[in-house]
């Protein structure tokens, strides 16, 4: 498939100077910490003007993530990049990527999949190239209304009535040549997939998390697995009954829902997973992260996975 390469564009001089002169940016490090977060309408929805974006940036800074894949960026891109002092690419109004390390190539696939849904970059981590892709699959049908009282066949028919399965097929198709190179140039693909995982809806969890007895081989996560990707959170936290890793809820009205729909996938021999964790604050309230309090401006949780580059 044809794809467009967009060569790196210099950041605003002040941002570039900040990035290049940040001491911890220049330190050699064999680890790569990736954070993925749907920040909900730029983190500054009209419901929480100012506080949401500031809280989001505060959490991002505190995380010390090397790479951030952001969803629902909507106008926050420059402010986030300037605040972090990171290199960044605004792939679309929806998707953006921030990197402590130089971005040396940008990937979009306009003939196959919209940049609103998918795009990526290549970064140079002290001489090792890594490809980072940001993802958003359609939110309908909504994960909160899975017909769990139906058969698995009926549930899968409900799921595939939307466009997510078609979107993931297109994405994996354009990734095929990069997947063939993954052992030399590893790939991290993360974002808001708006879909459940077959690793979560098992015999062990069928009576938990409002699954109501359902065991489901969800097609999006299966497609990722069959393409050679590993689910970093579930790899590090294999018992879904003990730790689901919930990443979505919207206010008190859905606090009974337990949904993991945001993921950090990876593939390639040069990446060794060291840790993966899920964080989920409550929209509009204070969230304590690493001992500090921040206003939580998103209806999504965020995932952080740390890799060793071998």
Automatic annotation (TrEMBL):
Query: A Pfam family name for this chain?
Result: Exo_endo_phos
Domain Endonuclease/exonuclease/phosphatase residues, every copy: 35-300
Keywords linked to the UniProt accession = Endonuclease, Hydrolase, Nuclease, Signal
Signal peptide start-end? 1-19
Decide whether keyword Hydrolase is in the record: yes
Q: SUPFAM superfamilies in the record, alphabetically? A: DNase I-like
For molecular function, the Gene Ontology terms on record are: endonuclease activity
Cross-referenced Gene3D superfamilies: Endonuclease/exonuclease/phosphatase
Q: Where are the transmembrane segments?
A: none
Q: Write the protein's name.
A: Endonuclease/exonuclease/phosphatase family protein
- The species this protein was found in: Candidatus Merdimorpha stercoravium
């Amino acid at each position: 498939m044809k794809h467009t390469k967009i060569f790196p564009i210099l950041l605003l001089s002040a941002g570039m100077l900040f990035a290049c002169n940040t001491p911890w940016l220049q330190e050699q490090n064999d680890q790569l910490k990736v954070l993925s977060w749907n920040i909900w309408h730029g983190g500054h929805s009209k419901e929480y003007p100012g506080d949401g974006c500031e809280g989001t940036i505060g959490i991002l800074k505190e995380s010390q993530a090397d790479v951030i894949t952001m969803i629902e960026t909507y106008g926050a891109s420059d402010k986030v990049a300037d605040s972090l002092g990171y290199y960044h690419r605004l792939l679309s109004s929806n998707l953006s990527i921030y990197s402590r390390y130089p971005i040396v190539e940008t990937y979009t696939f306009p003939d196959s999949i919209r940049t609103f849904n998918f795009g990526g970059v290549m970064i140079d981590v002290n001489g090792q190239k890594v490809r980072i892709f940001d993802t958003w699959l359609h939110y309908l049908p909504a994960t909160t209304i899975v017909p769990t009282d139906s058969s698995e066949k009926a549930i899968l028919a409900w799921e595939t009535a939307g466009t997510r399965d078609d979107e993931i097929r297109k994405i994996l198709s354009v990734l095929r040549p990069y997947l063939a190179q993954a052992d030399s140039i590893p790939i991290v693909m993360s974002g808001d997939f708006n879909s459940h995982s077959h690793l979560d809806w098992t015999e062990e969890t069928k009576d938990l998390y409002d699954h109501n007895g359902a065991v489901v081989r969800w097609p999006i996560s299966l497609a990722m697995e069959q393409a050679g990707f590993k689910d970093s959170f579930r790899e590090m936290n294999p018992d879904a009954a003990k730790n689901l890793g919930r990443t979505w809820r919207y206010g008190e009205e859905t606090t009974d829902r337990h949904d993991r729909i945001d993921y950090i996938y990876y593939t390639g021999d040069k990446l060794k997973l060291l840790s993966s964790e899920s964080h989920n604050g409550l929209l509009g309230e204070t969230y304590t992260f690493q001992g500090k309090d921040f206003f939580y401006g998103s209806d999504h949780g965020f995932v952080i996975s740390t890799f060793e580059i071998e």
